[in-house]
Batch of 2 targets.
Target 1
Amino acid sequence: MDEKRDTLFESGASDPFRFDERVSRVFADMIARSVPGYGLFLEVLAVLARRHIAAGDHVYDLGCSLGASSLAILGATRDRDYRLTAVDNAPTMIERVRETLADLNAPQHVEVIEADIRDIGFESPRLAVLGFTLQFLEPATRLELLRRLAGAMPDDGMLVLAEKVHFDSAATQAMQTELHLEFKRLHDYTELEIAGKRQALENVLVTDTVAEHEARLREAGFARVTLVMQAFNFVTLVAERT
Ligand code: GEK
């Protein structure tokens, strides 16, 4: 995989954000320098996978991008024989993730599907991961996807949902936003790049509050929702079917 540094917003303003060839080429660098706690999220996911996945299970990585979540899961469970389906609707991501996962020679059965996650059927997902993906779906379509996931899950099914969130309190929101911006500055993004990306993501990445996520997950059919990790305005929730 040709790893490249993210300089997409060097000159500031741009068109609305899209997961295209340019983004796919720099994606690994972009997400590591933009999402506080991304590395820890992958470790948390590995722990959850080790704890939860058993032989014969079906695991879904929904919005897999370059496959980092799949790799974390597969690496932590090499002693088990199960099926992992990685899905993304960006052709350039799929092209790259196919290569990565094929080269991996994983003992598990891995398949990569290019599709909108709202259009595929789910076959008894014991573990499903939405790693910073739900936030890119039109808000009105989120509940239906979660409902279908919960409905297809076995009783001991689990969803790992990682998202950027916002806060009801204006003071908390201001503080968390400032800390996120400082994280980006720490990773050498300029003010122009930060402003450009922010503009590009407007109406493309639409956040909810943790309370909104919890309420929607419950409405979708998940019985228990647990916050397992937070880094500023990025959270990971575990939703259990029963
Ligand atoms: C990781 N989980 O590295 N159907 C399928 N894929 C979609 C859809 C959709 N409707 N909408 C967006 N995507 C990964 C990171 S990135 C997060 C996930 C980020 C895909 C989109 O093409 C992109 O690859 C991914 O969701 C979101 O752990 O960029 O902040």
Target 2
Amino acid sequence: MPEPKKLFIETLGCAMNVRDSEHMIAELNRKDSYALTEDVSQADLILINTCSVREKPVAKLFSEIGVFNKKKKPTAKIGVCGCTASHLGEEIIRRAPSVDFVLGARNVSKITEVVDTRHAVEIDTDYDESSYAFGEYRSNPFKAMVNISIGCDKGCTFCIVPATRGEEISIPSELIVQEIGKAVATGAKEVMLLGQNVNNYGRRFGTHEEEIDFTGLLQKVSRIEGLERIRFTSPHPLHMDDAFLEEFASNPKICKQIHVPLQSGSTRLLKAMKRGYTKENFLSRCAKIRALCPEAAISTDIIVGFPGESEADFEDTMAVLEEVRFEQLFSFKYSPRPMTEAALYEAQVDPLAASERLSRLQARHTEILDEIMDAQLSKTHAVYFDELKPQGKVAGRSDDGKLVFVEGSEELLGKIASVRITKTSRGALDGALL
Ligand code: 5AD
Ligand code: SF4
């Protein structure tokens, strides 16, 4: 057996990218044998799996390529993959000729076709069955990530994703079930269903025809024997119909953690963002979740400083935070992106005002989070342990997605156990096994 080649892979951005990186590792291993390394200077192949949702990481890409060039072996190849690859394409090679190939977010399954072709650029976003061929590689053996759809049709005016990931296509449910079945057979008890808009599942398939929606898919997936936990990301508030929320609340395999991306609490701005819901619709969906499932952890994404945002609009966002009390908040300063409508809007917000609003939002959220976490003391959670930690600790997630540490060893891995919380902090909980 020849020595495996060494692969360094940096993954930026969302869960979709994490899964795409797994997919590329699996594809590469079909052709050759690769071992992962965290040391760039040892690598034969360096992959940067990029995100283009905001401008900063895109700007950082080129300085990073420069750093890798200095550190890498002379024979090592560099590939730029993911959303920035899709959006900049050949320009990446023009600006950084040391890059060997460029592979778009929709094309990751073609990694073996470009890896040996100097200056190959593969960024097509047209429909192609291979764009959702599953690769068999899991970064965590106890959990699987499985795409249920690719692309996005929504066209929110701030978002570059529809341009980088292309049209939304659902993956046939039988394939999804098959994929999860394989993961369960090899030790995964939990699945994360992935898509840009998971609860729009079933609206359009590729060459396949099937009558099914996301609720139907959840029911089907939950019948897989040996699968104990189902998570999904991200749903869209617009498609949170009652049937879906009732399934979420009543199906014991579905983890009680739900991401409801708000973006803004101002109905006026939501319209300018083309989100398709009002502040009131959003609040009614969250109220429904709380009514059906009081223990659910609700998380969100918020953008501040969207063009035209006034102090009053921002206060609407703060009011929603106050009412829903999101547990996790991913908050961003608006970043104008090419190929998006909002980048052309005239009323861009003063960046200093946007930064100040972002700080205010985050400070208030931190207080709320502290209250939520403090209230966990002495509570009992069912924790699925999936990671060994230093100093004799094992980490896992509660059903509602909280990170929990206990003292223990390898035997706990892959098991779900009851834990009483003994210490709380903002980011994680400590507990004792019951
Ligand atoms: N500027 C700032 N944040 C953005 N997001 C998407 N596009 C932009 C942008 N142009 C945020 C949204 C989305 C998350 C993944 O990234 O909140 O839900
Ligand atoms: Fe972007 Fe909106 Fe699609 Fe999410 S739903 S990926 S924010 S266009």
